[in-house]
Design brief:
By secondary structure, the chain is α+β, with helices and mostly antiparallel strands. The chain is about 55% helix and about 15% strand. It contains six helices and five strands, in the order αααββαβαβαβ. The strands form two sheets. It has a three-stranded antiparallel β-sheet. Strands 4-5 form a two-stranded antiparallel sheet. The N and C termini lie far apart (about 65 Å).
């Protein structure tokens, strides 16, 4: 860097009034930078809050659609299809499969984004596979790496669909 004695020599040559103006300008610049940093932080928090609010609005729209459906003239299959479509739209997911427990089997009744016909009409024993485990326990189950998951709840259907991540919830 510049030697200290050189800086002191330059400062001696600047008139005192100019030095005090420079110090005031530096102080003002510091204040401005603190205000800008504060405003940037607030703006970032506002963006996050807006995203959360939009997600909550989408979820409320799904709840509204789902709670309204049974009071409509739609049959059960149409209601479940509306549920699958609404959940897919609100959560921004590629695939949704809605099933009902019939005896000891979870039967797919509606789907959105499911590619194979057997996935759209799958039947899984309660307690087997990801969906069967949720049907049995009622607990949310998530998996972010289906191929590497040690729980090995893979079924032929989820393998053929080439799912990589999965979330299953009981309704």
């Amino acid at each position: 860097g510049v030697p200290r004695h050189a800086i002191q020599g330059i400062m001696r040559d600047i008139p005192r009034a100019t030095r005090s103006q420079a110090a005031a300008a530096v102080k003002l610049l510091g204040t401005i930078l603190r205000v800008v940093a504060h405003e940037a932080t607030a703006a970032g928090e506002n963006v996050s809050l807006l995203a959360q609010q939009r997600q909550a609005t989408r979820e409320l729209a799904v709840l509204y659609t789902v709670t309204r459906a049974p009071n409509s003239d739609l049959d059960l299959e149409a209601i479940l299809q509306r549920l699958a479509d609404s959940v897919g739209e609100a959560r921004g997911v590629e695939a949704v499969n809605v099933g009902l427990v019939e005896g000891d089997v979870l039967v797919a009744k509606a789907s959105r984004g499911i590619l194979t016909a057997d996935a759209r009409t799958s039947r899984v024993r309660v307690g087997e596979g990801f969906a069967g485990r949720v049907a049995s326990s009622g607990e949310l189950l998530t998996c972010t790496d289906m191929q590497g998951d040690p729980r090995l709840y893979l079924t032929a259907t989820t393998t053929r669909e080439d799912f990589h991540a999965f979330a299953v919830a009981a309704i």
